[in-house]
Amino acid sequence: MRFKNKVVLITGAAGKIGTAIAHLLAAEGALLALVDVKLDAVKKFSTELKIDDERFIILKADVTKESDVKAYVVATIEKFGRIDCFFNNADIDGKKASLTDYPVEMFEAVMNVNVKGTFLGLKYVMIEMKKAGKGSIVNTVSIEGLLGGHCMVAYNTSKHAVIGLTKVAANEAAEFGIRVNVLAQGKVLPNGNNAEEPSKQKDDENEASEIRIPLRRTATPNEIAKVALFLLSDDASYVTNSIYTVDGGITVF
Ligand SMILES: NC(=O)c1ccc[n+]([C@@H]2O[C@H](COP(=O)([O-])OP(=O)(O)OC[C@H]3O[C@@H](n4cnc5c(N)ncnc54)[C@H](O)[C@@H]3O)[C@@H](O)[C@H]2O)c1
């Protein structure tokens, strides 16, 4: 119960990793603010959290809009009085196309969600954490934030930028007792029937990528979420400004 009565705000809460982390945090006693642009999807999975209604709040927000970000922070403070931990995770992938073919409007859309959305979350959550004199933040990227992947120029660029944002935030936040880290995960497939097992849904692309992963398989959302919980928790009290790869070893090459 590392998170007993700790207030944890999660953006992208309806996604694969957001859902997994919400379940693990609920089981460890957290109070949850679940933010996503897809309200119905959050409502649907929140019924499976097995916690009392007063222990979580569901907030619809588009993380690219400053007013929405301010509103999700205000609503969380109004409900729970503080924000102890922040999982800054909403993102979009964009499309696959070579750099020379990449649509400019798609580039802007990806940068808006992944970079501006992450920045706005940091800005307004850190204001509250500074007042409290403590806090822990985890941004999410991907190993693509460390690499020059193929045909994903907007996604890769945005993830490199979030690593930069993490370093600046970690540097500025440290004197206020706030830690900021970033999770760089490899490929994740949905949980299987059992949350500890990878999904059996595999296509040719997944089979091919698994051959290149030293651990010879993709991750489950729970395997990513468990590392996020470590970074958010006091177990990581001396960890800040770190880039945590959770990738089955793929970045060894
Ligand atoms: N799934 C993978 O294989 C994988 C691999 C590496 C890194 N990651 C990273 O992990 C993080 C989470 O990934 P995921 O697999 O859970 O993604 P996902 O697509 O399942 O979930 C992303 C969530 O963000 C929400 N979102 C998108 N735009 C938004 C906006 N403007 N405002 C508010 N919410 C918005 C979506 O509605 C969705 O619920 C991302 O940063 C992603 O880049 C994922």
Quickly describe the structure.
By secondary structure, this protein is an alpha/beta fold. The protein has 7 helices and 7 strands.
Q: Strand portion, in percent? A: 15-25%
Largest sheet: 7 strands, parallel
- What structural class do you assign from the helix and strand content? alpha/beta
CATH architectural label: 3-Layer(aba) Sandwich
Strand order of the largest sheet: 3-2-1-4-5-6-7
- What fraction, in percent, of the residue positions are helical? 40-55%
**Which hetero ligands occur in this complex?**
nicotinamide-adenine-dinucleotide
Low-confidence stretches: none
Number of strands: 7
Give Rg in angstroms.
17 Å
Structural features, described:
- This protein has 253 residues and is an alpha/beta fold.
- The protein has one domain (7-252): NAD(P)-binding Rossmann-like Domain (Rossmann fold, 3-Layer(aba) Sandwich).
- Helices cover 42% and strands 15% of the residues.
- A seven-stranded parallel beta sheet has the order 3-2-1-4-5-6-7, sandwiched between helices.
- Strand 1, helix 1 and strand 2 (31-36) form a beta-alpha-beta unit.
- Helix 1 packs across helix 7, helix 3 (66-80) packs parallel to helix 4 (104-132) and helix 4 packs parallel to helix 5 (153-173).
- The longest helix is centred in the middle third of the chain and has 29 residues, at 104-132.
- The structure holds nicotinamide-adenine-dinucleotide (NAD).
- Nicotinamide-adenine-dinucleotide is lined by residues 11-12, 14-18, 36-38, 61-64, 89-92, 113, 117, 140, 142, 185, 187-188.
